[in-house]
Protein: 8-oxo-dGTP diphosphatase
Amino acid sequence: MKAIPVTCAIIIHQEKVLVAKRSKSMNLAGYWEFPGGKIEEGEQPEGCLIREIKEELGIEIKIQSPLTPSKFDYSQGKIIELIPFICTWQSGEINLLEHEIIEWLEVGELPKLKWAPADIPIWMELSEKWQAFRSISSHKQC
Structure:
């Protein structure tokens, strides 16, 4: 079965990372993830991610760098290919439309969360490469 391509944003701001808790109306309710969404037919991953973050959180982001995609078979043949990008918050006020809550966490706090399975390799890679990414968030003025 073909994997469903899904993008996610690792949004870095003031040396912290935005994480989102899935709401009760979502599959995997109560699990944490990096926000994003399914790529529509004919859409590029980067365009999808910018659109999804605007729809879900109401903010503008700038994509900085890709990370390694993660595949996970969730059951009954539903395979997700999660395509992550390091991003920075550019403008707008966060407005939760799909998730229960969001948190800005230090990378060292990420292992304490109950993660959606496809997101686990992504936060692990982020942790390994954190020193290279942590300073990119200092460009946004608040």
Notes: The radius of gyration is 14 Å. The chain has a mean pLDDT of 91. The beta strands are 4-13, 16-21, 32-33, 36-38, 60-66, 70-73, 79-91, 101-105.
